[in-house]
Amino acid sequence: MKITIVGSGYVGLVTGACLSEFGHQVICMDKDAAKICALEEGVIPIYEPGLAELVVKNVAAGQLSFTTDLSQAVPNADAVFLAVGTPTQRRGNGYADLTYVYDAAREVAALLQGYTILIDKSTVPVGTARQVARIVSEVNPDADFDVVSNPEFLREGAALKDFMHPDRIVLGADSERAATLAKEIYNPLYLLETPFIVTSQETAELIKYAANAFLAVKISFINEMANLCEAVDANAIDLARGMGLDGRIGKKFLHPGPGYGGSCFPKDTLALMRIAQEQGCAVRLVEAAVEVNAAQKARMVKKIRDGLDGDLAGKVIAILGLTFKPETDDMRDAPSLTILPALLEKGARLKIHDPQGIKEAAKILPECEVADDAYTACEDADAVVLMTEWNQYRALDLARIKSSMRANPVLIDLRNVYQPEQVRDKGFRYVGVGRN
């Protein structure tokens, strides 16, 4: 099939690369000429394991191409994916900004030729698919088209696996014709017996928000339990394992830490709250999860301060990991962006390192000193804070680190990567989350 992807950001680029791997003829379009030029030269603007190799492979095979010209990409397409950004509105009210989605729909509408399905891949509020259909009909009354809601469930750092081996494919379609064509796009996944959920547009749109909100609730719940564990001298790691082995609960997302971040959970929980408020419905669990997450980040600042005997002024702190999770360079709403400014405000001197996010972090946090590696960051430090659990931080030479630090060094492990006894045996004070 001939497929066009409008928007070559994270979701669009992963979708385009994977669909071309399926054997489709894919054109990824973006208005950012510099980005398109870079992609044509094999330079990928984001870090996602395996993505660069997949893009280069399918460009060489003639299955994947890039353009800034929508008129070259739309007229012959069987399907057009809308994969543009839906950031939170600048007014700070939590609503998703649909400007890019609606603008893309207008531009695509004028170029449609023959039957085409427009597929909403962006995360959008309930009712967006119908608004897209209305816009297309207004711009091009003669257009033969359908709109399908097809939310993405890609985890940053594991996006290719999630696309190629998904838990499910959700298709919100009002016509059998549209559903059949959308299924054909994902036909290779039938061989893997992937579950397909064909439902209404509204239900498909809500599934995405509900799924992310549920995971955010789960994270906030285990963080509250970790705080309780600290108060009663219990172990949150054992608690999480005891819960997670229950098949009704599951072990995923039961990891105490500094709170959730990234491009999805913060934005999508707020958007779901606003959608519910518009309908006069309460989503109190989601509201509580958002409040707990904000409080957890503030609690981490106190944990670091207490680990340094209550005084941060003049203290040198090594920060290992800045992105909201490992295997990504994404700094959006990362806990570090809340925690680090608070440490700086209290007089701490910060030396930072991250395997992939350091360039972006240095722009956002120019007051921090950038270190070339983890060991350099720890030199002459009073404390080491493990903020993001990158694999390269899981087996650090603690003896080497201690020898380069100041007297009475502290390891503040916000991801519970290390065993407390192991760290204490190396001469550190240890501070974890949910365990003493």
Strand content: 5-15%
User: Could you give a short account of the major beta sheet?
Assistant: 6 strands, parallel
Measure the end-to-end span.
Answer: 57 Å
Query: How many strands in all?
Result: 14
Shape: elongated
Task: Estimate the mean pLDDT confidence.
Answer: 95
CATH secondary-structure class of the largest domain = Alpha Beta
Describe the structure in your own words.
It contains 17 helices and 14 strands. With 436 residues, the chain is of the alpha/beta class. It has three domains: 198 residues, Rossmann fold; 83 residues, N-(1-d-carboxylethyl)-l-norvaline Dehydrogenase, domain 2 (Orthogonal Bundle), CATH 1.10.1040; 132 residues, NAD(P)-binding Rossmann-like Domain (Rossmann fold, 3-Layer(aba) Sandwich), CATH 3.40.50.720. The chain has a six-stranded parallel beta sheet, sandwiched between helices. Strands 11-10-9-12-13-14 form a six-stranded parallel beta sheet. The radius of gyration is 24 Å and the shape is elongated. The relative contact order is 0.09.
Helices and strands in order, then pairings?
Layout: E1 2-6, H1 10-21, E2 25-29, H2 33-40, H3 51-60, E3 64-67, H4 70-73, E4 79-82, H5 99-109, E5 116-120, H6 128-139, E6 145-149, H7 159-164, E7 169-172, H8 176-185, E8 196-199, H9 201-232, H10 236-244, H11 265-278, H12 284-307, E9 316-320, H13 336-345, E10 349-353, H14 358-364, E11 369-370, H15 374-378, E12 383-386, H16 398-404, E13 410-413, H17 420-425, E14 429-431
Parallel strand pairs: 1-2, 1-4, 2-3, 4-5, 5-6, 7-8, 9-10, 9-12, 10-11, 12-13, 13-14
Helix pairs in contact: 1-3, 5-6, 9-10, 9-11, 9-12, 12-13
